[in-house]
């Protein structure tokens, strides 16, 4: 599993930094949904719950990206 640098407007960035931002956006959307449904009130420690959710989303996106890059046609 190797990730190549991404050319973002002439600046080479690590693919993990793009995944970090994407995971943060997904977690923000999930936080809004959980807040509207009142699910955050059920968490013992909402900030810790959101951090764990971010870690799960980031790990899932990394695994999907690694699988996608590994099986991408050359």
Gist of the model:
With 74 residues, the chain is mainly α.
What strand order characterises the main sheet? Answer: 1-2
Low-confidence stretches are none
Shape: elongated
Helix content: 55-70%
Specify the biggest β-sheet.
2 strands, antiparallel
Structural class: mainly alpha
Mean pLDDT, to the nearest integer, reads 88
Radius of gyration: 15 Å
Say how many strands there are. Answer: 2
* Amino- and carboxy-terminal Cα gap: 15 Å
Number of helices: 2
**In the residues, how many domains can be counted?**
1
Listing every helix as H and every strand as E from the N terminus to the C terminus, the arrangement reads EEHH
Beta-strand percentage range? 5-15%
Would you write up a description of this structure?
By secondary structure, this protein is mostly helical. It contains two helices and two strands, in the order ββαα. Strands 1-2 form a two-stranded antiparallel ribbon. Strand 1 (6-8) and strand 2 (11-13) form a beta hairpin. The longest helix is centred in the C-terminal third of the chain and has 25 residues, at 46-70. The two termini are 15 Å apart.
Question: Could you outline the blueprint of secondary structure elements for this entry?
Answer:
Blueprint: E1 6-8, E2 11-13, H1 15-37, H2 46-70
Antiparallel strand pairs: 1-2
Helix pairs in contact: 1-2
Task: Give a quick set of tags describing it.
mainly alpha, elongated, 74 residues, 2 strands, two-stranded antiparallel ribbon
């Amino acid at each position: 599993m190797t990730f190549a640098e991404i050319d973002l407007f002439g600046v080479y960035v690590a693919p993990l930094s793009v995944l970090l931002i994407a995971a943060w956006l997904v977690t923000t959307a999930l936080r809004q949904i959980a807040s509207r449904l009142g699910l955050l009130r059920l968490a013992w420690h909402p900030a810790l719950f959101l951090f764990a959710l971010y870690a799960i989303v980031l790990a899932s996106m990394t695994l999907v990206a690694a699988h996608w890059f590994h099986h991408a046609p050359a």
